[in-house]
Structures
1.
Amino acid sequence: MSYAVTVSFDLHHHASAEDYHDAYAELAKLQIFRQAVGEKGNVVQLTNTTCLGYWDAPNAVICRDVVQAKIKAAFQAKGFSFRLNVFVGDNWAWGCMDVDQPKANKLLLDALRILEAPKPQTLGGTRLPFAGF
């Protein structure tokens, strides 16, 4: 049976960009990639440190255990310390979207303006009264 295998990981101890590049290369050797291909052939970039592949196995537990063991061995051979999540499903569907919310961007800009606003003046550790009201 064919299973969708989703992998998410974190490399520890101040891993470099090169370390992550090497980790993705190891996953690609296992047919687990940073992109997913949709049913219409469109290629979708997955979020950081999320990868997807398709594996055949007798059941989901065996699939998870085999994939997890192979990734563990590959990452340990590279000397990585890491956290690894492996999710396996058989009746799968996936979706991906990028959402740009102008309201969220406006809130972020407003927050930055507040942070950049002049700070209240103090005199000898005592805050001066605010006369804005």
2.
Amino acid sequence: MEISKKQVIQLLEVFRQQSYDELLVIAATSASKLLPVFQRVTGSTQEGMTCLILFIGTSLASDGKLSELEAKFVSDLLGVSENQINTLVESMKENTTYVDVVDKIFDACMYELADELLKFCCCILAIDKDLDEKEVRFVKKLLDYE
């Protein structure tokens, strides 16, 4: 399915209009649905969490920069320090392989978890209210599947 850049921007705009607290609730709800599936698929609680963190890190690194608000949001969401979030993003932003891995996870879960993965990703990208061209391309890549 091919999705237009305009459709991606419209989708992200819906999330951009939400407050910090609303985005936190949406992301936490999505994470609570995603994590058990990731754990079941990987056969491990730790590996399931790694999948979730990979998705978060790749989403945050998609535009090549991490705002203080993005770091705070993920820190509040996961209960980890903002320094840990900074380290995660730094390790991921230079490696485009992660985007391909996340895209494969998204495609593999397309029917079971696509809505939750998409909501989760959009919350992370929309939190700083700044939609970057690279973020739009990242979401478009996730949504373009056959």
3.
Amino acid sequence: MLKRFSLLFPLFLAFFCVNIASAKTFTYLCKGGDVTYSIAKQKEDFFLVVTFSTDETRFMSDPKLLIRTFKNEVISLSGRSIGDGAKSFGVAVGNIVVPISKVVSTAQFPMSIDQLEKLNDGIKKIRIEVSPVNHEKEYKKDKFGAKLFKQYQIMRAQKDEEF
């Protein structure tokens, strides 16, 4: 059973990462790597999907995420970790290839329609429970709240038959 899981998990992770990468996402650099945000729809439910690609950051099994909008409203989300993996690549330095590995950790956070609409007010601050240290970022102006809201509006307007 474990052998089957170890063979299927990389395929699942690759499929999931390709689907996330093809969606409209917002990415910024953080310590040791980057963070990517996107909105996903499963049946009638919407999720905020967050992926860390860093040296060591991983989501706990039941992560929490806090968003403060520019209207000082706080959106509190509880999610679940949906995948941990690694990506490796090499960087050529002269005649030597230096191997580099990154931890890829993804979590999804269910969001209500009301919470999604608050994203249009802009994201002032975001805090995510991750290991080893919580991730926190503050903005002077909205960088991606309105973009995520627009992504939600597009997904809401699309019919399941339109694929």
4.
Amino acid sequence: MESIAQNTCRDGLDNNCDGEVDYDGDAAPVWPLTTHGDMSCPVDATGVSAEDPYCWNVTRFVPVNCTFTTRGRMGNVTLTDRLGTTNSCNVFAGWIGASSTAMFNCSMAGMVSGPAVVSCGINGAYSYNTTPAVSFGEQLNALNQPCPIGICSRAGICIDKVPWDATVLDDLTGTIIPGQVNITIDDTTVYVNLPNPFSLTVPVGNHKIWASMAGYDPRT
């Protein structure tokens, strides 16, 4: 008898002589060799997760984690954008520790930014399943849109700091004030004796900025 209850779904044997072996057929060491799992040893996808939102870039991949009832070669993972373009994510990146959660990489090639759906299911070429695929709503964000630690860069990478280029001008003439400038950000971070114009790397978000120069009233 081949079944999960009998603990015979990973012994490499065709216990009931039906030409199908274990969860996915991959462990069969004896004739007749098979490439498919047994009907009494189904595998199901039980969970899916991904970093959300994720920065959209057609040259990059979305890392996705799919949890199954057991390990094997059964993953059928897809990423579908808001226009219906679907990419296979069967770029297997390994298992997480000793768990049955597998890591996949989903290509964004040919896709547009916006809402998307990641789906984790079972590859019927290797295994039987009893439940449908599980899905996860993913947001693919474009340039300057939010991501978990900040905003999406032009390269499609989530960044928490951005370059800030600024110039202190004379209020009356509108011309650049020669000399050095002192900058205070959010009443805590202080930069002194910067050239004017100047360039800084600052955290993403809205900030209170004070600028002061010798001989001039400070400005915020």
